[in-house]
Amino acid sequence: MSLIDDDMTFAGRDKTAVVGIGQTDFTRNSGRGVLSLATEAALKALADAGLSVEDVDGIVRCGDDVVTPYTLAASLGAKNLTYWADTGPGGVAPCMMMGLAMGAVLSGQAKTVIAFRSLNGRSETRLGAGGQRGVGAEIVGGRGSYDEYFLPYGLMTAGQTFALMTRRHMLEYGTTAEQLGAVAMACRENANRTPHAIMHGKPMSMDDYLASRMISTPLRLFDFCLESDGACAVVITSTERAKDLRKPPVTIRAVAGGAPLDARAGMMFPVVSRHDMTELGGRAAGERLWKRAGVGPSDMSVAQIYDCFTISVILQLEAYGFCGKGEGGAFVESGAIRATGSIPINTGGGHMSEAYVHGMNHIVQAVRQLRGEADMQIPGAELSLVTGGPLPIGSSVVFRKAA
Amino acid sequence: MSYSIQPNTEDRETGPFFAAAAEGRLVFRVCNDCGHATQPPTEHCPWCGGWNTEWRQAQGRGRLHTWTTVTHQIHPDYPTPFTLVVVELDETPDVRLMGRLDGAPVLTAGQPMEVWFEKLNDDVALPQWRPLGRPV
Question: What is the CATH number of the domain that holds A72?
């Protein structure tokens, strides 16, 4: 891959910072609307930063969010909104939101940007049930979605899609159920040291994992992330300004997205046509990210790896260079990803066991680790990777504890 | 069988796939300049950068690439267990298509598969795949 020269001296390196984090309770039924959840998370993030609603002049969101930037601004009473943007689908969004916020701040379009994700992913829109899809007569696909090639067959969910990818990883590399289970168990262990995590107080053994019911072979219930209600928000501003704010700043050292070498039109289902179904856009994202950040995977104190499914963690550990292609199963089985391992992942429990806030809880957790505020704190954490995706494209951030 | 979920057969990029299926033919989009195929189909060829693509008829044979047996019911029209199969066309590794088998059959990666056409209604058919030689 050719990298433009600018990547070697990434203009945004450590120039912007996350100065506030906020989240609602994570539940199975919030009993509230997603706008209220987003508003609560944003207000908490502002309070955490020592900023007020009047400071907010930018809002960025996930393209899947029901709440728009201007509606959130209206709910907040943020009358100085002058910049807003959407980015990407689902799990790709949070890391790219950091990029949008960085761009807005460094270009002078905004000084104080809120990035948020709010969803009632359990009580209202269950992605595991095919999202908002109704059960009545329906014409599906068309208009560039390419869903007409997939939905009429009964391929309706991300879980089924990742099951097809998992089978390929097992066929080609000998990856085992127990190796998938090692990912789920690592996340559960961390959730059990994180009181607000949905699965806190629910230890899980390998036998428990293996006994969980099959959903879509070879994936079991505990290969799947949670479905949950909740919102997360963070506040981004310039690193220079961050020094005067309430909390120790955590800088956005670098951000990078990446497309797979064999990208196909459409959203997640077309991965089945990629020549290599287990190769992610995360590889290109990672190659750029490490150059932009000037550090590599072995420099990370901690990593928040997008865990919609256990296999997605294994594939991303390979894509971002923590281990070789096909070695992800053995890598996670070695204990490397546990709290005491070489690269502790998903230290709040992740989507597997903390909550599913579509990647935003990973951003919040990374900031907590680098402030030294995490419930399960990794001692001396200085750099954290956060990944997003993993379909159809990849996204990533390196955060740094400010010097 | 009758399904409430029907494919959009009138999309400008993909309509010809379903028009052919209604006639019992399987087609895929191929580039006349470089020989690669695009799936999902696009008019522009991302492999060589040309626009000289067209629909070509496939013989209807392929190899099983991967599969999953769905045991968690998502939609009432698709009772579990059923098995989703991904089949790579014999003509090109660039194209893999979906199919659905009832139940949880024993399958092997690479096994030969053949197409058949499931009529959803008088106007719409869906190309489906089954292990070679196995009756519907």
Answer: 3.40.47.10
Per-residue tokens: A260: 């797979």
A356 is catalytic: yes
Identify whether A146 is a catalytic site residue: no
Which of B70, B97, B101, B126 should be substituted to probe chain A, the one whose Cβ sees the most A Cβ atoms within 10 Å?
A: B70
Within a domain: residue A72? Answer: yes
pLDDT digits (tens, 9 = 90+) for B39-91: 999 999 999 999 999 999 999 999 999 999 999 999 888 999 999 999 999 99
User: Is ipTM strictly over 0.85?
Assistant: yes
pLDDT tens string A287-339: 999 999 999 999 999 999 999 999 999 999 999 999 999 999 999 999 999 99
* Nearest in space to B57 (alpha carbons), one of B84, B86, B19, B83: B19
Chain A partners within 8 Å of B129 (Cβ)? none
Contacts of B45 (CB under 8 A, 6+ apart): B31, B33, B34, B36, B38, B51, B52, B53
CA distance A313 to A166: 11
Range of the structural domain that residue A56 is part of: 10-120
Instruction: Check CB contact of B108 with chain A, cutoff 8 Å.
Output: no
The total number of structural domains that make up chain A: 1
Subunit contact A164:B84, Cβ cutoff 8 A:
yes
Residues of B whose CB is below 8 A from A215: 70-72
